[in-house]
UniProtKB/TrEMBL annotation:
Organism listed in the record: Geotrypetes seraphini
Listed GO biological process terms: sphingolipid metabolic process
Coiled coil: none
Protein name: Ceramide kinase-like protein isoform X1
Pfam families linked to this entry: CERK_C, DAGK_cat, PH_CERK
GO cellular component entries: membrane
Alphabetized GO MF terms: lipid kinase activity
PANTHER family: CERAMIDE KINASE-LIKE PROTEIN, SPHINGOSINE KINASE
Superkingdom to which the source organism belongs: Eukaryota
Signal peptide interval: none
Residue span, DAGKc domain: 186-335
SMART domains assigned to the protein according to its UniProt record, in alphabetical order: DAGKc
Length: 566
């Protein structure tokens, strides 16, 4: 029996912490806040403006331990401002003549606004060029591009214009800020982009060129774009391409495409590391992080990672280098690796996908609804045996309280290295390493699982009436507990084996895994992709095997479910 503490690696947490510190900062401030720039801070200056203005100064503000790098005058909006660049932030306050006794004016004058440098993703010299003008144009100043939070999960880009027509002045600010931006870790400079032009209603290309590419260009990211031409194209591309040329991969498509890219990348890592992929191998981590721009009919991976399918949010996570380690599942059969993935369904979920794939000519949403209804109409249980290594929560209190409270507790878990066996007739079995948030399931298909906790969720729906099973499915679309049915069982596990029930009467439960006879193929839904395999399958979870660009989202921005077929 092993004991361990649930890991808490979350790059975005630090980001959130800094943002809340910025919010705290702001709450100390007086005077107006710029409403269109929600992440910009405002705080009181505790020092008077220097009398000699107009020249850049190199100073050190020892009180705040945030050394001042540059100081100068720019016009921001219609106001002349004293602008200070320190190692952590860019701040400015309006310059107004002091009138003795005018307290309000003096307070206003000392009010400072700022943006943290970690929220800046690009800087450009701003010039005006008239039609036909040959040279580079008249300098107007500097434009700073920043990443702002919009609502709970969304990010958006915005600009701050620092106007000053002096070339020398602007160039020295431009170079200094550019150097700082180049020093931020994890921000990609070169990306391989893989677009599935056939995803959903064939809008992936347009989403990329209109919403994502302009942001990558602004951030000076080199891109190498491939439009996939057939299923499996991304996989063969990743077998050969020179990965060292890139800082990351980006997939524009739905869950199927993303899963193929992740599988290809992880497979490549195993080949490069010379790993023998039998069912007990310990996989090595993927060499590159993967970004997901959602453009598919199902976007569970993007929702779980960003809390929204908003392409600009995904693009900004990539540009800012927000890395989120994510657990990955391996699926093996007869001692052979079949694929890597994040989630899977067997039984109803597998059969519905197999049916949908046979009707590819239908529009995607219609196809999905048709397949769900038809599979529900022909609902039939599968006679299977399930073996799993369960994890038990050590701390009694950690199952109570809100998700946030639970997260803050120190959670200790034991996992039993003793297989548990259950068999019977199952309608559906789901095994998920990520919360599986989506527009039809705002709490997620696996609400108790995090992206990087090292566990997987096993949800078993035993045989019941069609009406009861439909009620259980319908419950996913609400915020009520979808597992609160007598025929549903949930477990947190490390490993699962699914096997057709042994009717031979053998007492050795593991003998059948050795020499398995040729058998019927069963449909599995792995991240929305159909995997047809023999009845014996072994699923393991590998903690933090890949970095994805994004954050650890707890629930959706828009918790409105929109499934109409049930
Ligand atoms: N050019 C292509 N033609 C056909 N299939 C492709 C092409 N490129 C990729 N694929 C495959 O299409 C499958 C589905 O793609 P994706 O998940 O991006 O779209 P989707 O609209 O969400 O899919 P679905 O309609 O199956 O939910 C993936 O398995 C991918 O491998």
């Amino acid at each position: 029996m092993a004991t361990f503490v649930r890991p808490r690696v979350n790059a975005w947490c630090d980001q959130k912490k800094l943002q809340s510190e910025a919010a705290e900062h702001r709450s100390l401030g007086v005077g107006k806040r710029t409403s269109s720039l929600p992440l910009l801070g405002t705080c009181e200056r505790d020092e008077a403006l220097p009398s000699s203005r107009g020249q850049d100064e190199l100073r050190s503000d020892s009180a705040s331990a945030d050394p001042v790098l540059l100081r100068g005058i720019f016009a921001i909006g219609k106001q002349s401002c004293d602008v200070v660049l320190s190692a952590r932030k860019l701040s400015w306050s309006p310059i107004q003549p002091e009138i003795p006794g005018d307290v309000l004016r003096t307070e206003f004058q000392h009010k400072e606004e700022f943006v943290e440098l970690k929220d800046i993703f690009a800087i450009k010299l701003k010039r005006r060029r008239s039609v036909g003008q040959q040279n580079e144009g008249t300098l107007l100043g500097i434009t700073i591009f920043i990443c702002l939070r919009k609502g709970k999960n969304k990010l958006k880009d915005s600009t701050i214009n620092l106007n000053n027509i002096s070339e020398e002045h602007c160039n020295s600010w431009f170079r200094q800020i550019k150097d700082i931006l180049n020093g931020f870790p994890n921000r990609p400079k070169s990306l391989k982009i893989i677009i599935n032009p056939h995803s959903h209603k064939k809008e992936a290309r347009q989403i990329y060129s209109e919403q994502v590419e302009p942001l990558f260009k602004l951030a000076n990211i080199q891109t190498d774009v491939t439009l996939t031409e057939y299923k499996g194209h991304a996989l063969s591309l990743l077998k050969e391409c020179q990965l060292q040329e890139y800082d990351g991969l980006v997939c524009v498509g739905g869950d199927g495409s993303t899963s193929e890219v992740v599988h290809g990348l992880l497979l490549r890592a195993q080949i490069d590391a010379g790993r023998d992929t039998d069912s007990t191998f310990m996989p090595v981590r993927a060499q590159l992080p993967v970004g997901i721009i959602s453009a598919g009919s199902t976007n569970i991976l993007a929702y779980s990672l960003h809390g929204t399918k908003h392409p600009v949010t995904a693009a900004l996570h990539i540009i800012m280098g927000h890395l989120q380690p994510v657990d990955v599942l391996t699926f093996s059969s007869h001692n052979r690796l079949l694929r890597f993935g994040f989630s899977s369904m067997f039984g109803f979920g597998g059969r519905a996908l197999a049916l949908a794939e046979k009707h590819r000519w239908m529009p995607s949403s219609q196809r999905r609804e048709f397949a769900i209804i038809k599979t529900l109409a022909n609902l039939k249980p599968e006679d299977f045996e399930l073996l799993f290594l369960p994890i038990n929560c050590f701390q009694a209190g950690s199952q109570r309280g809100s998700r946030k409270e639970k997260k803050e507790m120190i959670e200790e878990y034991v996992y039993q290295d003793q297989w548990q066996i259950t068999n019977g007739h199952f309608l559906n079995i789901s095994i998920m390493a990520i919360p599986c948030l989506c527009s039809v399931a705002p709490r997620g298909l696996a609400p108790n699982i995090r992206l990087n906790d090292g566990f997987m969720s096993l949800v078993v729906a035993r045989n019941t009436s069609r009406t009861e099973f439909a009620k259980h499915l319908k419950r996913y679309t609400s915020v009520r507990n979808q597992f609160d049915f007598p025929f549903v069982e949930t477990y947190t596990v490390k490993e699962v084996k699914v096997h057709q029930s042994n009717r031979s009467g053998s007492t050795d439960k593991f003998a059948k895994y050795v020499n398995f006879p040729t058998e019927e193929k069963y449909p599995w839904n792995v991240d929305g992709d159909l995997m047809e395999t023999a009845s014996e399958i072994h699923i393991r979870v590998h903690p933090q095997l890949i970095n994805l660009y994004g954050c650890n989202t707890e629930e959706l921005d828009e918790s409105k479910a929109n499934c109409s077929c049930l």
